[in-house]
Amino acid sequence: MGRIIVIAGTDTGIGKTWVGCRLAAHLKQAGVDVRAVKLAESGTQVDLSGGEDGVLLARAAEQIRPNAALRRYRTPVAVAVAADLEDVPFDLDAVISEVRDIADDAELTLLEGAGGLLAPLTWKRSLLDVVRLLGADVIVVGADRLGTINHTLLTVMALSLTSAPPLGVVLNALPDADHRDASFGQNAKALRQSAAGLQVVESRSAEWEEVVAGWITAES
Ligand SMILES: Nc1ncnc2c1ncn2[C@@H]1O[C@H](COP(=O)(O)OP(=O)(O)OP(=O)(O)O)[C@@H](O)[C@H]1O
Ligand SMILES: [Mg+2]
Questions:
Q1: In this predicted model, what pLDDT tens digit does every residue of 99-127 receive, in sequence order?
Q2: C-beta separation of 142 from 169 below 8 A
């Protein structure tokens, strides 16, 4: 099986897909046989839409399959909640087996979760279990804004309970530049000072994809 890297968020809407797409395109450009996959997506339309995470990721990695999230729910809530509301159970074991099949055919598979790390996929399991069951490495994505130090450290701590520490953290500059607070640009250093050995890169840095590619290579 090829390597699997889970892109885990500190929250929803902080840039996991943006980071995943940029990273997939960068790796592809560097000659890596990469796949980029969304495990499960909620808030989808009935028909596949070009704005869906799973579609954006597939396009970035230039893959034919999968061309969308492995499971899609209409209701824009956590997967376990959507599964209950729509009465369509989320069979995590089946989905994990699909991820393994995809990873078998690729050198590297980037796997985006849904929401933050502990958002429930079922009432018993979250992306943390997916990481453990797949033996995946993890890249954490957080927003470069006030509050991110706490959210990122909590995410790293949760990961350390069941798996290896993350390869690193991408602190993402969300596009709402008008609303940037005084912590913007300070959070990376603060995180490094708070957690010895934690690798952190800011997405505003021109070569951040290269830095993350270096983390991936260093661990292989
Ligand atoms: N660094 C960035 N530069 C420009 N736009 C960005 C950046 N990061 C995120 N965005 C935009 O912000 C929005 C939210 O980002 P994104 O969809 O990647 O978040 P997410 O964590 O994947 O959300 P979800 O939990 O819904 O999967 C998107 O419209 C995305 O294109
Ligand atoms: Mg996303």
A1: 999 999 999 999 999 999 999 999 999 99
A2: yes
For residues 40-56, give the mean pLDDT. 96
The end-to-end CA distance of the chain, in Å, is: 13
Q: CB-based contacts of 68: which residues, under 8 Å, 6+ apart?
A: 38, 41, 48, 52, 54, 55, 58
For residue 31 and ligand 1, the question of a CB distance below 6 A is answered with no
Which residues are annotated as catalytic? 38
Superfamily of domain 3-218: P-loop containing nucleotide triphosphate hydrolases (3.40.50.300)
Res 178 pLDDT > 80: no
Tokens of 110: 């980037």
- Give the start-to-end residue ranges of the domains of the chain: 3-218
Can you tell me whether residue 84 is helix, strand or coil? Answer: helix
Q: What is the mean pLDDT of the chain?
A: 96
**Is there an atom of ligand 1 within 6 Å of 175 CB?**
yes
> Is the pTM above the cut of 0.90?
yes
Mutate which of 10, 23, 174 for ligand 1 pocket (most atoms within 8 A of beta carbon): 174
| CA 130 – CA 37 distance, rounded (Å) | 13
Count CB neighbours of 185 within 10 A. Answer: 13
Task: Give the Cβ contact number of residue 19 at 10 Å.
Answer: 23
